[in-house]
Amino acid sequence: MKVAAAQIHPRFSRPEENRQIVRRYCQRAAQQDVRLVVFPELCITGYNFSSKRDLASLAEPVPEGPTTQLWVNLARTNEIIIVGGLAELGDKGEIFNSAVAVGPKGFLSCYRKLHLFGSEAKLFSTGDQIPKIHSLLGFKFSTIVCFDWAFPELTRILMLEGCEVLCHPANLVLPLAQRVMIARSIENRIFTITANRIGTEDTLTFTGRSQIINPNGDVLARGRARRTQLLIAEIDPTKARNKNLTPTNNIITDRRVELYKRLVT
Ligand code: ACM
Is residue 60 annotated as a catalytic residue, yes or no? Predict the structure, then answer.
């Protein structure tokens, strides 16, 4: 099965232009028989808003908003799963930094980022739910958003719940997550797809270098730092079902959970 990371350059505060970019990348992915395509965090609005009011004017309800509706149509016509980040407008006017998942049969879920980065907390409310896991087209996938990379507990929970392919929409400004996600893949024996953006907004430069990693930590595809790219890799998600790191070591059954209580205090 082919999966993809769309490393795009969203235009700040120009949602219609960005929706058209996403549309083109979905069509390109489908033409190459990709079944799952991941887009960056906040790929419709851009990232570096200084005012909550400006961001609020572009935030959208999910699934009724124009972006989710477009993605539902693109997923149906192209028979593809789409995961990507957007600014979600909540029922009470809150704004969430969310990742939306849609499939050929429609809307699947909206995950609200749990770990906000830097000054995001001035703009966004924090989510309070673990991401959902979807079983579709013969494999199980889920999503985290950007800075969630720094909290291995979240990926661990998703692996224990059965996630085989972890999508990771990102707007990375540090060069660390690309390294860390290799470890997340190895220690959980899952595929990870980090779709990072490129470009600069004010003082922030996004680091590109999107990647697709297999459960052995091999880099199946890697983007450049400053180029828009559709990265594609062929994966066999069933390989993520074997949790043996060596013939005698299993990453689930070898755990010493009775000694790990400190992790959740
Ligand atoms: C980030 O969470 N956007 C770094």
Answer: no
